[in-house]
């Protein structure tokens, strides 16, 4: 890989990371919010590295880093790089010759800048078993607001574990995207949650009754009451909702957490 | 090497144009070459369209998202690791390590294992650091122990484990002990059976050469190591994304019945999923159908062996090493976690 290509790769990589983390919310499609400062720092670092390399390359010309002087130091390192693996001349000497494998870095870099894939959605959610909800012993009384905003996890936990049956008869509002059921015509209100990056994605689903399914991946806010079945407050109760209204919303910025809605994504 | 690249790039249009003009007089009634020259350009449109449509299939989109997510998530840690490794190479004199570590390699191994606790972050950072430790004269056995233990026993990972398994501190303890044991056993195993020639020759070099500016050397080494490891990271991320998308989690339940099979199965799953070590506890917690020992195996194997790590190790230490080392680590990790999981959980 030639020096100008390396400079291009480093600069584009830096710009890509900054674009995804500093100027837009793109990075939230792929990694957790907590990584953002590290991504911004990494982007800046790559950019600086690329610019430094460009600047020093112009000043130095073709004297090959001035490494010529220590060929007599008895290491025989010049020979290692050329034998076997193509061009891997390592050990702090001919660093301008980066192995060809580095070309692969252009794929994620360009993809991040120009062709960013969308957040994980209905395709992934439909193929995965829903995330197990945590055991919870004590439940605080629900606020009196109506309709009451709730997360999908909270709702599932309340329905299956709250022996006080506090959700009974309450009007509840939840947001998520549409995942059509492969068997039959029903659909699930879904959120994909990850704890670090999209590779560890898990999903929470609530079955919705009473309203026809919108296209997959549509973000909606659903208001309704618990769909009766089994015994409320035990494992036999289904995490399901009888929908009264379903309205389309803009994809929220915190799409990968199961939190109450904040702001639409940039 | 870079010359062949540019030559190949130049060759492509060079081949295409004569082919088109050669077909011209033979195939068409009109001997005008220009419509045939337009041919590839016109064809390129639909091909590109088909390619974009294929890339926008839900499965391909999910694959691209997961692949990009793994790369983006790992990049800061890879940068941190290469920066540390570059700094060790250029600024830390070799005598520091010989003073800190016990002289005898057998004793240096467990010390290096415990020292893994100081490098916070995920596994991508530890590969370049271990590489630079070897270059600074640390015995490879100790460096490999550090490589294995650092991503598994650092405070960030242990805290995440405690959060993911509330109310079962035994799981955190079991993870700590099993990871340390695996790392130490692998170090001793290297002392016993390891051969220097499995390592790529470059690894055996020392870092700073007199006569160079340390800063320039640091910067160039950093840049080289990052680009090099980054390429391998992309390979690993692609492989991991393929399994991540192709293996639906719902098939897992079929294996959860048998205790022995489930340990092996989750160990294999940890290898192909390549979940970051800070997050794998949450994934393990969600595999509720499996026994605690199987989930422990998932968390012990994951930070030590997975597809992106194998790719990174192959790039840094050479393929001969990566294959042997990963296979041995998997076996040792499964044994250690079964043993410790059987006692503690």
Radius of gyration of chain B: 25 Å
Mean pLDDT metric of chain A: 79
Total domain modules of chain B: 2
What percent of the residues of chain A sit in helical stretches (DSSP H or I)? Answer: 25-40%
Alpha carbon gyration radius of chain A? 27 Å
Task: Give the uncertain stretches of chain B in residue-range form.
Answer: 1-28
Major sheet description of chain B: none
Oligomeric organization of the protein chains: heterodimer
Lateral arrangement of strands in the main beta sheet of chain A: 2-3-4-6-5
Query: How do the SSEs of chain B run, as a string of H and E?
Result: HHHHHHHHHHHHHHH
At CATH level 3, the topology of the largest domain in chain A is OB fold (Dihydrolipoamide Acetyltransferase, E2P)
Mean pLDDT of chain B: 80
- So how many helices of chain A? 6
| C-alpha end-to-end distance of chain B | 54 Å
Outline the low-pLDDT stretches of chain A.
61-96
Shape of chain B: globular
DSSP helix fraction of chain B: over 70%
N-to-C SSE string of chain A, H for helix and E for strand: HHHHHEHEEEEE
Strand proportion of chain A, as a percent range, falls in: 15-25%
Molecular structure report:
The complex is a heterodimer of chains A (266) and B (345). By secondary structure, chain A is an alpha/beta fold. Chain A is 29% helix and 16% strand. Chain A folds into 2 domains: 3-117, no CATH class; 123-248, OB fold (Dihydrolipoamide Acetyltransferase, E2P), CATH 2.40.50. In chain A, helix 1 packs antiparallel against helix 2 (36-60) and helix 1 packs across helix 4 (106-114). Chain A is elongated. With 345 residues, chain B is mainly α. In chain B, helix 9 crosses helix 15 (319-344). The longest helix of chain B is centred in the N-terminal third of the chain and has 34 residues, at 58-91. Chain A: The chain crosses the membrane at residues 39-55, 101-120.
């Amino acid at each position: 890989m030639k020096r100008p290509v390396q400079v291009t790769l480093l600069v584009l990589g830096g710009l890509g990371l900054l674009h995804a983390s500093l100027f837009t919310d793109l990075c939230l499609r792929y990694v957790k919010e907590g990584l953002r400062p590290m991504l911004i720092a990494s982007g800046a670092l790559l950019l600086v590295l690329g610019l430094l390399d460009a600047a020093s390359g112009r000043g130095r010309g073709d004297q090959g880093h001035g490494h010529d002087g220590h060929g007599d130091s008895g290491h025989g390192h010049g020979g290692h790089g050329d034998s076997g693996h193509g061009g891997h001349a390592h050990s702090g000497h001919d660093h301008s010759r980066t192995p060809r494998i580095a070309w692969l870095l252009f794929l994620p870099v360009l993809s991040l800048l120009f062709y960013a894939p969308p957040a994980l959605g209905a395709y992934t959610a439909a193929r995965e078993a829903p995330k197990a909800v945590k055991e919870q012993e004590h439940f605080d009384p629900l606020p009196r607001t109506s309709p009451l905003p709730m997360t999908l996890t909270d709702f599932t936990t309340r329905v299956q574990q709250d022996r006080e049956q506090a959700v009974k008869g309450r009007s509840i509002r939840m947001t998520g995207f549409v995942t059509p059921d492969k068997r039959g015509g029903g659909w699930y209100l879904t959120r994909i949650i990850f704890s670090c990056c999209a590779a560890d994605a898990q999903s929470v689903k609530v079955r919705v009754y009473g309203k026809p399914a919108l296209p997959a991946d549509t973000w909606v806010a659903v208001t309704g009451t618990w769909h009766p079945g089994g015994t409320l407050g035990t494992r036999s109760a289904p995490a399901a909702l009888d929908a009264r209204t379903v309205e389309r919303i803009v994809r929220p910025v915190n799409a990968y957490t199961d939190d109450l809605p904040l702001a639409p994504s940039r | 090497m870079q010359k062949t690249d540019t030559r190949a790039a130049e060759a492509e249009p060079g081949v295409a144009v004569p082919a088109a003009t050669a077909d011209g007089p033979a195939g068409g009634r009109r001997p005008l070459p220009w419509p045939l020259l337009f041919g590839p350009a016109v064809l390129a449109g639909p091909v590109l369209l088909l390619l974009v449509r294929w890339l926008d299939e839900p499965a391909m989109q999910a694959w691209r998202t997961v692949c990009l997510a793994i790369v983006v998530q790992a990049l800061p840690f890879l940068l941190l690791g290469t920066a540390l490794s570059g700094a060790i190479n250029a600024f830390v004199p070799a005598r520091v390590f010989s003073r800190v570590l016990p002289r005898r390699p057998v004793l240096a191994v467990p010390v290096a294992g415990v020292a893994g606790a100081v490098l916070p972050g995920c596994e991508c950072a530890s590969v370049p650091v271990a590489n630079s430790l070897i270059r600074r004269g640390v015995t490879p056995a100790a460096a490999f122990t550090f490589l294995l233990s650092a991503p598994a026993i650092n405070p960030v990972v242990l805290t995440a484990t405690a959060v993911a398994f509330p109310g079962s501190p035994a799981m955190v303890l079991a993870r700590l002990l099993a990871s340390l044991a695996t790392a130490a056993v692998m170090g001793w195993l290297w002392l016993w059976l390891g051969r220097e020639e499995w390592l790529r020759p470059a690894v055996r070099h020392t870092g700073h050469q007199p006569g160079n500016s340390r800063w320039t050397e640091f910067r160039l080494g950093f840049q080289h190591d990052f680009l090099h490891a980054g390429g391998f990271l992309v390979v690993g991320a692609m492989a991991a994304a393929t399994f991540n998308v192709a293996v639906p989690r719902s098939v897992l339940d079929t294996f959860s019945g048998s205790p022995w099979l489930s340990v092996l199965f989750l160990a294999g799953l940890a290898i192909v999923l390549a979940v970051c070590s800070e997050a794998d506890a949450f994934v393990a917690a969600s595999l509720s159908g499996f026994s605690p020992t199987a989930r422990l195996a998932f968390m012990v194997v994951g930070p030590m062996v997975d597809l992106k790590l194998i790719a990174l190790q192959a790039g840094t230490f050479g393929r001969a090493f990566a294959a042997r080392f990963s296979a041995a680590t998997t076996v040792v990790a499964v044994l250690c976690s079964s043993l410790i999981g059987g006692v503690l959980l």
